[in-house]
Every structure is written in structure tokens, then in C-alpha cells.
Automatic annotation (TrEMBL):
Residues covered by region (Actin-binding): 585-607
Gene: LOC110982917
Region of interest (Disordered), ranges: 785-814, 975-1016, 1035-1091
Subcellular localization, as worded in the UniProt entry: Cell projection; Cytoplasm, Cytoskeleton
Protein name as catalogued: non-specific serine/threonine protein kinase
Molecular function terms, GO-annotated: actin binding; ATP binding; microfilament motor activity; protein serine/threonine kinase activity
GO BP of this protein: regulation of actin filament length
InterPro entries, A to Z: IQ_motif_EF-hand-BS, Kinesin_motor_dom_sf, Myosin-III_kinase_activity, Myosin_head_motor_dom-like, P-loop_NTPase, SH2, SH2_dom_sf
Entry keyword set: Actin-binding, ATP-binding, Cell projection, Cytoplasm, Cytoskeleton, Kinase, Motor protein, Myosin, Nucleotide-binding, Repeat, Serine/threonine-protein kinase, SH2 domain, Transferase
Principal place of residence: other
Length: 1091
């Protein structure tokens, strides 16, 4: 690509500029920014300048522009990065041949990394043609995690206080699941925020958005009374309307992703308790022993919210018990130690809740267990905290800036070091481009045994060590290191480090405490025995070597020694936060190195977070420390694409127009000359191409592909017409043969009839009245051969399949964690999904009562398993806005059919893992179909403004959902899924004698004899509720009229409701939205016969 001297701001790719220096680079970016062109290429790297406002360039129109397009066809855009990564995943990278891709987004805090991440994921889902529930769940992960992991800082109003690596898993281009890896949540923010900063968003959402009933339930107070919220402005009061809206969006996101109502309730209880912990005031008596000051109300409230004993909570906050030689000693805490214990418990409570949320998301979004690793490819998106420099920088800023140093090193390795070393080894003539290598600075942090993190871990081992002794060790060991600058005052706890992005001064106060992250053992024991299921669960989990929470993982055992040495005992050493963070960075870099990287450099235009303001000096500093000038030079002069000969020939051999092509350098040269590319080099084992050569090659491939598709279309049409003529001729011949056969059959039948008549007339035993009755009727029975028509269109069976095909969605599956591997297990309790019988079983077991109103009647708009074509026939003569909801045969769910202006439209209705309902492609989630219909009678269901107006009922003399009702002739449980039958047998219950079939599930009415085989005696009229996954009894009622207690909403994790159906009632006419009910008779206890 030739150099350009285009007017300033008109160059989309800065690597094509003829003259380039720091001033020109800055001028180009500034001019483009001022004209709302926030994206610019530097070769294959995207530079994004944060506009701090919505430019309206992320809608459907722009999404379509960047689908399957060559990069140079459109202006630079974040969507182009998504497209490049997706296409490279499908075909393999031209550089490395790797199919796994990663997108590394870097920049300082407030540069727009999190927003870029959301746009990238949105476009990748768009490229997958993602309309399934799984893809909608993935889109909701970012806003969900932002609520719990983001906060307002002086640098960024929505600053990520944790890092995340999102891995999207694909099979043949379709997304199959996702996994989130979290890095270093800033837990200390829960108990303390710097001046002008806020706590995590979720607390302000709750204070502004919870209803009065919920506020009372969770014992909430006014925002300015919480000591954990008084260090910064309160968004709960200044942005109340927005915070309330955000809470509603969060609740909807949790419903859509799959969090149960019970789990959400327990989450809010924990969050309310977290805030209330700060209200526990601690003081010390004359002996310096800590005690709870003032009223015990705060202690009692916290204890009630998280299900622990208030006296036990008071004890673990004020003293510790230790034992020696059989004696137990009480060691009272000082006031400071008690406050530390309170804050440590608060931080751990919030930190483990956040880790559980990530763990839960990974369970819900995991690929199916049936998928093998070799079958999948992935795109990883890294959104990690940006480089930070505040007025006061603590342990968190040290770790955050270390992570950014690692990413800068990864960038330098790929763009400068490895590339230039490859030029040398492959014999390419090259002038070395210098760059700033930060390897020595990483050694300062990570070296063993003398590195900052190693020395910090060592100091944490000594009980009497302090933050000051740690700083003294740093000064002593790194006095000659040019990256380390000690404080001028010897008594100071400060030290400075020259990072790649500039010098940062750190305050070592609380470094040791934050690195140890200790929690008294009594606190752990107390929380593990909590009556709050979620609290108990998250504190029974274990923390892995990378700092993540493992809830069901098993410990790995190593065979170091067959027998333990004498005098030794097994000990488990708790890893420090620094060590965990170091391990997590190591795992992250391994993942990145196994993938083909795409880089996005985010630039912050000003320090005031203002729109349309570009501060030259501030931006220049960012361009300088990120090495953008050197990056531009190496992209302009270098060879970004370096495929092996064989890989290149396999990918582009069709361009050579040669039937035989050797997979060596000669084959590569032939391809390049045929296409007409210039400015490339051939090495010893690889081909060296400019970054823009890939676009040119792909453009030729697209042209060739379009030509091939056209030829295939013509050929297929010709072959189809030939087959069609042959089949019509054959069908006509079969018709004639069949008609001839039927005529012969009719003739033979008449002959036999005459013979039989003569025999009968000769039989004297037959009365004469019989023959007289025959004579009065037709003497000859006419048998007319049916006419067989040759069907010349698509047969009805194919029509049925194709009409339901478009509504097919993703399976709803259960989840299971095995050794930190997140998998979803396909639910086959009802049979193979996509079959009519399975859909009937699913409906009867889980939906029959769920879609009825309080009187037990089906709504007028409800229909059974009917095809799309049948739905359109029912709506044909209805007014615009008429609608019906039908049970889908192709999946476990529903379809909404709506009469629009020009045609009928069809929408899939899916169930979330918690059994709630949503229209696929829409965000709102509803508890039942009635709420869904009510909502879309007011709000449009699509961008075209379609709303539901009038329900379309059953056709005259037709009941298309009759097969979904109970079988009146055979009420026994012949339709019970085999898995449930197996569990029933394990319980000692006979399916044939004790299970009674009912419309709302499987009603069990055990006889007196059955009581001996159950876990505990039941009366003859008892009704059981079993979990089909393990046969465990969930609940039971003691009478037919007793209302059962609430059960977990676990439709897809195997819970079956076994209850008595409503009593029969005569059908009533309803002129609104209901249809006369067809009621099933009540299930009666079955009395077994004498054996």
C-alpha cells in the first residue's frame, strides 16, 4: 500500500503516511476526534479515542456495514475488530494459523475499555446471527458484573474495579457457551473510598430502586447514614431516577441469565448486611479490650440478614479463642483489631459473593458436556483495569499497574521483539526499530527471591513485621535499581516506581494486611453454618491458586511420597493475594499466547471526562508511553503477516488457478504473482507480507467465492430440474399402475361377492328375511378406485419441518461443576427435544398449570402444538393485532404468532433456566405468559411497532390442545418419564399402582401399604413433591385441599411438581381473553388390588 499525502484527518490508516513524527501523529488523531472520527488504524491495530458521549454509530445499520467485509471497505470501527477476529477464527489466522483468537484492549482508566468490550461482544453475537437465549444471556453478563464490580472514581465514572477475560466458545461459527475469568476485585473499596469516589454501584442501585416493602425486608437505612458510603458523593440521591432504572435492568439481567428468585433474595440480604456491618460501632474499655458500643441493633440486623447467631457475631468481632495443651484462652481484641476483624469479614463477604456470581454465570453459560475441546474454537476478550495514578496509591494500584506492565510486555513481544527476531532468523533485510522493553521492570516485581512481591510475601510471614519494615527492605534491596525510587524522608512509608506509563508514588500503608487478607477462623466457621443457604455455600467453597472461588472442586493429589516423613504433619499454606494475582496473570498470558492477538489501544482525550475536549499534552503522554509512534513505524515498514509456506498455500491455493501446487515457497510465489501483490519477501520457512496484503487476498477470495456460488446455483438448478422431470414421469407411471391395480382389486371383490351371495342363498339355515332386506338396498356395491394426484410442490411433512425450523432455539439445559470445569448437561427427562411426544411430556410435567389463570382456565390466546401454517390460517381473517400463543414442537417453549399489516409474524418465546418467559431477541423477562401478553399490549414487540391487540381463539368445533390434557381413559402414569419412574422405584413406589396422571404433573397418592416403603409415614391422602434428578422429597401436603409451600423454581434442573389438579367446573363463557376451559377430572388415589 503506497504512502499517502492526504489532507490532515483524512487518513484512516496512519501507517500509510509518508512522513510521520510525534507531532503529525497527534495532529491526525486530534483532527479526526474533532470531526467525530474516534477510530483510526495503525496497520492492523485499532486506536480508539473516548468521545465521552454517544455518537450513534453502534446501531443495526453500522452492524450490517461491518459484517463479513474487507477492512478497507469501511471506515475504521470497533465492529471491524470483531469481524476480523470472527473471520480469522473460522478460517485460521494468516499470521500463525491459529484458530483461537484474543482481543486485547488496553489503555488507562477512563479510556473506554469496558464500553469497547461491550461493543465487540455485541457485534460478535450479531455475526453469529445470535437470536438464541444463550446469546442474549451473554450480552447481559457485562451489565450484571458492572453492577457488582464497577464504581465511580476520580478518573472514571464507571471504572472497572476488577479485571475480566471473557472466552466465547464456538462450534462451526455458532456460539456454544462462555466463561468469565475474574482478576483482583478491589474488595477494600467496600469499607473505604478515597475522597470524591464511591462504593460499588450495586449499593446505590439498592438504595434508590428497592421498593418500600423490600427496604423494610432488608432493613435498609438512608444512604447518608451508612459509614461505608460517607466518603464520597451519593449517587443514590443525586442520580436516583437513573439508579432506580439500573436496578430494574439488573434484576431483568439476572432473570435472563438464570439466577433464581431465591438466590436474588439471598444476594440482596448479603448486600444489605454488608452495608450494616459498617454500622457496628466498636470501642475499648479501660483494659483496652474491645466491645460493641451502644445499641446491639446493628449486630442483630446483620445476624438476621445472613442467618447467624447475634451473640456469636458479637464474640468473633471482639475476642479470639486459642488453645494450648488442652486449655482454652480468650484473647481480647483491641479497638483497632476489632475494627479490622469487622472490615475483614465485610470484605470477605462481598468478595466471595462476587466470586459466586462469576461462578454462577460460568455454570449457566457453559458449553454442553457433549462438546469436546477439539470441536470448539474461541474468541477471548480481555478487559482489564487500566493504568492508574491517584493522589494516594495503595496495594491495589500496585497490582493494577503490574497487570498493565504485563500487557505492555505482551504487546511489545508481538509487535517488536518476536517480529524483528524472526526477520533476522529468516534472512530478511531489516533495519532495527528500537522500542522500550519493560522486561527489567517486570523482574523488579516478579523476580524470586528478591522481587517486590516476593519480599512482601516474606514480610507477611513475620508476626511483628510492619508496613515500614517492608519499605525498609525495598530500600535496602533496590537502592541501585533505576526503576525504584525511595522516599527522601527515611521514616516515610512511601516509595516510587518508574513505570512504562510514568512515575507513580505508592503508600505502603496496609500493604501487609491487604496481602495477607486474613479472616479469623471462628468467623469462617460461623459463616459456614449460616442458615442463609447462599452464605453457607460461598464459605464452604475453597479459593484456588489463582484466587477464584471453587464451590464443588476436588483437591488434586500429588504423589510426592508414599509415606509421610517422621515428625512432620500435613499443613495447608494459605496463598497471599499477591501470589494469587501473580498466578492468575501467568495463566492469562498462557491463554493469550495460545491465541492470535488483535489489539485495541484506547486513548483518554482529557482528564475532566468531558466531551469535545482534546488535551494535547495529556494525549501525547499516552501516545509516548504506549509506543504508538514506534508501532506506526514498524507497521509501515515491517511484515505483520508471516505464515508458513504450507499454511499459506492451503489457504489461498485456489487463487493460483492451478490443479497442482506445491506447498513450498514456489507455490507461494505463484499465488502472489497470479494475484499481482507487490512488496513481499520470501524467507527460509515463511512468507513475509504487509498487514494490508491480507485484505487484498481476502478480497480476491470473496470474488472467487461469489463466482463459485453463482456456478453452483446454476448447476444445482439444472440438476434439480432434471430430477424433477424424472420424478414427475415416475410418479405418473406409478399412478397409472396403482389405478390399474385398484380396478382389478374391485373386479375381484365383485366376483367374490357374487359367489358368496350364491352360497348364502343355497344355505337353508339363513332366514329369507335376510335376503329380502338385501334386495331392498343396493344390489351391487360399487368400489371406486381413488384417483392419485401427483404432488408437484413441497410435501406437507417438509412444510411442517421448515415452518418450525426458523423457530428452533437453543436447548435449555441443566448445569454441573466438575473440578472447576463448567459444563451444561442436556436434559432428556422428557425425551428427545424436537419431537411431538417430548413436547407433550414437557408441557404436562411443567407447564399445564403454569399457563392457566387462577380459575384453572386456559386463556383465549392459548393453542396447542400447531404449525406455523395453521396459525396463519387461524389469523387470516382476523384484524391487525390479532395474536395467539402456541406450544412449539421443535423445542421446549412457545411461539407467538401475530397478524401485522402486511403478513403474519412469528416470535419465539423461551423459558429461562428459572422457568420465566421472554420473547427471544427482547430483554424483558416475565413470571408467566399472562404478564408477557399484558406487557406487549402496551409496548411494541418489535422495532416496527407491532403490539398485541386481540386474542385469536380456537376454530369452531376444534380444540387443538386436547392432547395436552390428561388422558381420561387411562389416568395411570404411563406418560411418566423413565428417569422419574426409576427414582420412584428407588423410593419403593410402584408406578402402576401409586402414580396418578394429572394435567399439572404427576400426582402421587400412596395407599396405606405404601407408607411402609417411604422415608416417613404418610396418610392415604398425602401428595409428594419429588426432585427428579435425585428422587429427594422436596415437600408434601397432608390433605387434598392443603396449599403446598413454595418450591424452588427449577423447571430445568429436574424438579417435578406432584400435586392435585383443580376440581372440575362447568365451562364458562368469557368474552374477553379467555376460552371456555376444558377441565381434567381430579386425580383420585389408586387403591392397589390384593396381591
Amino acid at each position: 500500500m503506497a504512502s499517502t499525502d492526504a489532507p490532515i484527518g483524512q487518513t484512516d490508516d496512519l501507517a500509510t503516511l509518508g512522513n510521520l513524527d510525534e507531532k503529525i501523529l497527534l495532529g491526525e488523531l486530534k483532527h479526526r476526534y474533532n470531526h467525530d472520527k474516534i477510530y483510526t488504524y495503525v496497520g492492523d491495530i485499532l486506536v480508539a479515542v473516548n468521545p465521552f458521549r454517544d455518537l450513534g454509530i453502534y446501531g443495526q445499520k453500522h452492524a450490517e456495514m461491518y459484517k463479513n467485509k474487507v477492512r478497507v471497505d469501511n471506515p475504521p470501527h470497533i465492529f471491524a475488530v470483531s469481524d476480523s477476529a470472527y473471520q480469522s477464527m473460522l478460517t485460521g489466522s494468516a499470521v500463525s494459523g491459529k484458530k483461537n483468537q484474543c482481543i486485547v484492549i488496553s489503555g488507562e482508566s477512563g479510556a473506554g475499555k469496558t464500553e469497547s468490550t461491550k461493543f465487540i461482544i455485541k457485534q460478535i453475537i450479531e455475526l453469529c446471527k445470535g437470536k438464541s437465549q444463550l446469546e442474549q444471556q451473554i450480552l447481559q453478563v457485562n451489565p450484571l458484573l458492572e453492577a457488582f464490580g464497577n464504581a465511580q472514581t476520580t478518573m472514571n465514572d464507571n471504572s472497572s474495579r476488577f479485571g475480566k477475560y471473557i472466552q466465547l466458545k464456538f462450534k462451526e461459527g455458532k456460539v456454544m457457551g462462555a466463561k468469565i475469568s475474574e482478576y483482583l476485585l478491589e474488595k477494600s473499596r467496600v469499607v473505604f473510598q478515597n475522597k470524591g469516589e464511591e462504593n460499588f454501584h450495586i449499593f446505590y442501585y439498592m438504595l434508590a430502586g428497592l421498593s418500600p416493602e423490600q427496604q423494610k425486608k432488608y432493613k435498609m437505612q438512608v444512604a447518608n447514614k451508612y459509614s461505608y458510603l460517607t466518603n464520597g458523593p451519593s449517587s443514590a440521591s443525586t442520580k436516583q431516577a437513573r439508579m432506580k432504572e439500573m436496578l430494574a435492568e439488573l434484576n431483568n439481567a439476572m432473570d435472563l441469565v438464570g439466577f433464581l428468585d431465591e438466590e436474588q433474595d439471598e444476594m440482596y440480604s448479603i448486600l444489605a448486611a454488608t452495608l450494616m456491618m459498617g454500622q457496628i460501632e466498636l470501642d475499648a474499655n479501660e483494659d483496652d479490650a474491645a466491645f460493641v458500643k451502644g445499641s446491639d441493633q446493628a449486630v442483630a440486623t446483620v445476624a438476621e440478614l445472613i442467618g447467624i447467631n447475634d451473640e456469636e457475631l458479637r464474640q468473633v468481632l471482639t475476642f479470639n479463642l486459642s488453645s494450648a495443651r488442652g486449655d482454652v484462652f480468650q484473647r481480647n481484641y483491641t479497638k483497632h483489631q476489632a475494627q479490622d476483624a469487622r472490615d475483614a469479614m465485610t470484605k470477605t463477604l462481598y468478595g466471595r459473593l462476587f466470586s459466586w456470581i462469576v461462578n454462577k454465570v460460568n455454570q449457566l453459560l457453559a458449553p454442553e458436556i457433549s462438546l469436546h475441546v477439539s470441536e470448539t474454537t474461541e474468541i477471548g476478550i480481555l478487559d482489564i483495569f487500566g493504568f492508574e495514578q491517584f493522589q494516594s496509591n495503595s496495594f491495589e494500584q500496585l497490582c493494577i499497574n503490574l497487570a498493565n506492565e504485563q500487557l505492555q510486555y505482551f504487546f511489545n513481544q508481538h509487535i517488536f521483539l518476536l517480529e524483528q527476531e524472526e526477520y533476522k532468523s529468516e534472512g530478511i533485510d531489516w533495519t532495527y526499530v528500537p522500542f522500550v522493553n519493560n522486561q527489567s521492570l517486570l523482574d523488579l516485581f516478579l523476580a524470586k527471591p528478591i522481587g517486590i512481591l516476593a519480599l512482601l510475601d516474606e514480610e507477611c510471614l513475620f508476626p511483628k513485621a510492619t508496613d515500614h519494615t517492608f519499605v525498609e527492605k525495598l530500600n535496602q534491596n533496590f537502592a541501585r535499581n533505576h526503576h525504584f525510587i525511595k522516599a527522601k524522608v527515611a521514616s516515610s512509608n512511601n516509595f516510587s516506581i518508574d513505570h512504562y506509563a510514568g512515575r507513580v508514588e505508592y503508600t505502603a500503608d496496609l500493604f501487609l494486611e491487604k496481602n495477607r487478607d486474613t479472616l479469623p477462623s471462628k468467623v469462617m466457621q460461623m459463616l459456614r453454618t449460616s442458615t442463609n443457604d447462599l452464605v453457607s455455600q460461598i464459605f464452604r467453597g475453597t479459593v484456588t491458586r489463582t484466587g477464584t472461588l471453587a464451590l464443588q472442586s476436588r483437591r488434586r493429589r500429588t504423589r510426592r511420597s508414599a509415606k509421610p516423613k517422621l515428625g512432620t504433619r500435613e499443613t495447608v499454606k494459605k496463598m497471599t493475594v499477591g501470589a494469587q494475582f501473580k498466578n492468575s496473570l501467568s495463566v492469562l498470558l498462557e491463554l493469550l499466547n495460545l491465541s492470535n492477538p488483535h489489539f485495541v489501544r484506547c486513548i483518554k482525550p482529557n482528564t475532566s471526562k468531558s466531551a469535545k475536549l482534546f488535551e494535547d499534552k495529556f494525549v501525547t503522554a499516552q501516545l509516548r508511553y504506549t509506543g504508538m509512534l514506534e508501532t506506526t513505524r514498524i507497521r509501515r515498514l515491517g511484515y505483520a503477516l508471516r505464515p508458513h509456506f504450507a499454511d499459506f498455500v492451503k489457504r489461498y491455493k485456489v487463487l493460483a488457478r492451478s490443479p497442482r501446487l506445491s506447498e513450498d515457497k514456489h507455490g507461494c510465489v505463484k499465488i502472489l504473482k497470479t494475484v499481482g501483490l507487490t512488496d513481499w519477501h520470501v524467507g527460509k520457512t515463511k512468507l513475509f507480507l504487509k498487514y494490508y496484503h491480507q485484505d487484498q487476498l481476502e478480497e480476491h477470495m470473496q470474488k472467487l467465492g461469489k463466482s463459485a456460488v453463482h456456478i453452483q446455483k446454476v448447476a444445482r438448478g439444472f440438476l434439480a430440474r432434471c430430477r424433477y422431470k424424472s420424478r414427475v414421469k415416475k410418479a405418473q407411471q406409478q399412478k397409472e399402475e396403482m389405478n390399474s391395480f385398484l380396478l382389478q382389486l374391485a373386479k375381484l371383490s365383485l366376483d367374490q361377492q357374487h359367489k358368496l351371495s350364491k352360497v348364502l342363498q343355497g344355505d337353508k339355515k339363513i332366514p329369507k328375511s335376510f335376503f329380502e332386506s338385501i334386495r331392498k338396498g343396493d344390489k351391487v356395491i360399487k368400489i371406486e378406485a381413488p384417483s392419485i394426484q401427483v404432488q408437484q410442490g413441497t410435501n406437507k411433512k417438509e412444510d411442517k419441518v421448515s415452518s418450525e425450523e426458523e423457530e428452533d432455539g437453543d436447548d435449555d439445559e441443566d448445569e454441573e461443576i466438575i473440578e472447576d470445569e463448567f459444563v451444561r448437561i442436556r436434559n432428556n427427562l422428557f425425551g428427545k427435544e424436537g419431537t411431538r411426544q417430548a413436547s407433550i411430556h414437557w408441557f404436562k410435567a411443567t407447564q399445564s398449570m403454569a399457563v392457566r389463570d387462577q380459575t384453572g382456565t386456559f386463556a383465549k390466546w392459548f393453542h396447542g402444538i400447531i404449525t406455523r401454517r395453521r396459525a396463519e390460517e387461524l389469523l387470516e381473517h382476523q384484524p391487525v393485532g390479532a395474536f395467539l400463543i402456541r406450544v412449539s414442537e421443535s423445542r421446549f417453549g412457545y411461539s407467538l404468532s401475530l397478524k401485522a399489516e402486511s403478513r403474519c409474524k412469528h416470535f419465539m418465546i423461551d423459558l429461562t433456566p428459572t422457568g420465566k418467559y421472554l420473547v427471544v431477541g427482547e430483554m424483558p423477562v416475565f413470571k408467566n405468559l399472562q404478564e408477557l401478553v399484558k406487557f406487549y399490549k402496551v409496548k411494541p414487540i418489535s422495532p416496527f411497532g407491532d403490539v398485541l391487540k386481540q386474542a385469536c381463539g380456537q376454530a369452531e368445533n376444534e380444540l387443538d390442545y386436547s392432547e395436552l390434557l390428561a388422558d381420561k381413559k387411562n389416568k395411570r402414569a404411563s406418560g411418566v418419564p423413565s428417569s422419574l419412574v426409576r427414582k420412584m422405584k428407588e423410593k419403593g413406589m410402584d408406578q402402576e399402582e401409586e402414580a396418578v396422571y394429572s394435567p399439572d404433573g404427576y400426582s402421587l397418592a400412596p395407599s396405606t401399604g405404601s407408607s411402609r416403603r417411604l422415608e416417613r409415614p404418610v396418610s392415604e391422602a398425602s401428595y409428594l413433591y419429588l426432585d427428579a434428578t435425585n428422587g429427594k422429597e422436596l415437600s408434601r401436603t397432608n390433605s387434598l385441599d392443603e396449599v403446598p409451600p413454595p418450591l424452588p423454581e427449577r423447571l430445568y434442573s429436574g424438579a417435578y411438581r406432584l400435586s392435585r389438579p383443580p376440581p372440575p367446573a362447568p365451562p364458562e363463557e368469557d368474552t374477553s381473553d379467555s376460552f371456555p376451559a376444558v377441565r381434567a377430572p381430579p386425580a383420585k388415589p389408586y387403591t392397589p388390588k390384593n396381591r
